[in-house]
Amino acid sequence: MTEFFDAQEEPTVDLSPGGSSSGASMRSVYHQVDWSATPLGQRDTWPGLLRLVVDLCLDSDFPVQISWGPDLLVLYNEAYIPLLGADKHPWALGRPVSEVGPHPWPASEEHLREVMRTGRAYHSDDQQLIIDRHGYPEEAHFTFSISAIRDANGIIVGLFNAITETTQHILYERRLQVLRRLGAMSITTDESLSSTCRAAVEVIGKNRKSVPFAAVYLRDLPDQAPRRTAGYGFDEKAAAGCELVEPTPSDGPVLEVLEHGGSTVLVSGLRERYPGVFGPGPLGPLTPDQAFVLPVVMLGRREPIGVLIIGVNPYWRPDEAYTAFAAMAARQLGVMITDAVSYQNERRRQQALEELDRARTEFFQNVTHELRAPLTMLLAPLQDILHEPGMVLPAAARDTVETSVRAGDRLQKVVDALLDLSRAESGALIADREEIDLVSVTTDIVEGFRPTVEDRLNLRLDMPAEPLRAYVDRTMWTTIVSNLVNNALKYTPAGEVSVSLNGDDSQVVLAVADTGVGIPLDEQAHIFERFHRVLDDQQPGSGIGLALVADMTAAHGGSVEVASEPGRGSEFVVRLPRYNGSPEPEEGGLSEASATLTLEDEVGIDRPPLLIIEDEPDLRAYLTKMFSKDGYAVEAAADAESALTWLQDNAENPPDMVITDVMLPGQSGLDLLALIRQDEHLARVPVVVLTARAEAESAVEAFAAGADDFVPKPFNSAELLARVRAHYQMNQLRDDAIDRAQTTVGQLRRALQSNRATGMAVGIVMTRYDLDSERAFQVLVRASQQNNRKLCDIAEELIRTGVLPGVASSPVGNV
To answer: 0.70 exceeded by the pTM?
Structure first.
């Protein structure tokens, strides 16, 4: 039978003898019973203690049972009648337990006699019983306590059984657990809506006491027939003839709910109509007889996308609470489907963007490589003509050739810029640092512009009197300075362009200022974006130069910023770490304490902060000195507790890297790592674990706890420096990628996974081939190019299989 659900009324309890009338009070019943026909005898002969206990029993709203005397004569109150069974009331009053039933509720006769014999109370929580108190077998749960009744001499004369029903609490917790599990499910691993539904039904099926069978139907389009995507609790062979669970229903309640406004339908009579289809649940032999058919609606839509079938526990009836539970399960399934659709759409969009980005990068790389050959063939002959000994060209011809060479050189710079841009987008733009004097290099670059501008503006240099040596990529530094100066000259028709350089122990600062046209305020946030051009800009350009400045500055671990006022000029400021990635001249004066955190006396404001936790004082001091010389601002702690205190005190400025020993006094390094990963402000900070245990299990344990790298003691100092440097650089790249993609959940997840995998792969290549971090990364890039695959895919395959695709056993030669 199919019906729209209405709450059913609870049947009343018949308290009269024989069950012929209702509403009589138990005190009236006690007056009507012929007690002389029972072993208790007339009521006026009862002991005073028994009369007192019976009065307490009758006054209670909770079920109470009294067992009196050696024969355990049964007495009870009105609330106990449904538990006893109406067919035994009032006959059971005053009868021995052995006559009332072979297993009197709620405890066996053995339990009762044990309490009579020993006086020790017997207690049971949430005992499950199948009872008939409303005309059908019903699941119920009770907590009871049987205690001894003693007379004035302390002799046990009876038992007092106080009972509390906990059925609603048990049912509530059971159903709530299903809803909690549904709400906690992740849809990010589901490949389709069908897999989402199967996962949801699997969760529901873990509680068959509440839902003995279930099924989900979906339809892809409004005019298509629904199809069953998941289900359990029924015979698959027999399901073809059952409108509730057949694979593709053509009629019945499923279509009724889908096509008629989405109202919930209650189907009854399953046991008789579909024998053998539904099996018994875990509560007993009864098979389900009713089921809810509920609409599944996506958020923001009105028409249901599917139907959820919830089988009703055969030992319960679909009351208001049961109906609410079923409705909430259907609603939660609708939320999951909504999230799954949104996630899959976003994932497809992200995949399309990644493919577009890959194609664009590949296009740039191919175009730049294709342009190099004809440019060489164009420029080389022209330069040969200009420099051929004895070659005399007419003035007009020489001027034409020189103009062509300058145009070719300009085109060559654009091609180089495109290649650098593609390298930056693919993550292969790596600074090849060397120690150079920035004063002389910068002066030479700027002086090269002077002949072309002296007639229209003042080009001013402000350089230190002494050499300013730093570890930078010479080619990148030349590009940074040239692009900034060229950009300033281009937009300063008259006035002044100034170039200044200064530095301290930790950083170098380049400033290029002009008195030109300035940058509109609404454009200043976009000028470092690739191919961005200011609207109404009449100057020639590709929108690449400033983007390359930003990329190359980032490759050094530095920063670039602009301050501009329209009509009054602009100033670009580049800051690069002076020694990041290369040895720093010997310094002294480190302050060190054995059990508390210490800070280096002289720390540059832009040196990356590094937290070291090591309990051995000498090793702690060595690590502090080693990483300080490598360009880090080092904090050191002797134990996890001190480190946590410092992290909490500096929550606004967390470290860029953490190095921790595993064996520490108090909390271990892995305990500290777990706390770091749970902190939303620290969760992405790279952590390198040091340990004296070098076996594979220790590495697995460290990586499982969230470590980015695992270095056994004794370690090679150069290797440790390289590993930390690689993780620091990858973390900077990762944070930059996350900032650009923070509005896209899929991009965020991809950035986190890809960069950690790349960092781990760099560490593997470094260890296997004895390379530094830059050369190891180049090996990965070359493998990516040779196999025409994404860099992250190459890294993940290396981590998973231990094999670097397409690279020989010794890949160093071509790096």
So the answer is: no
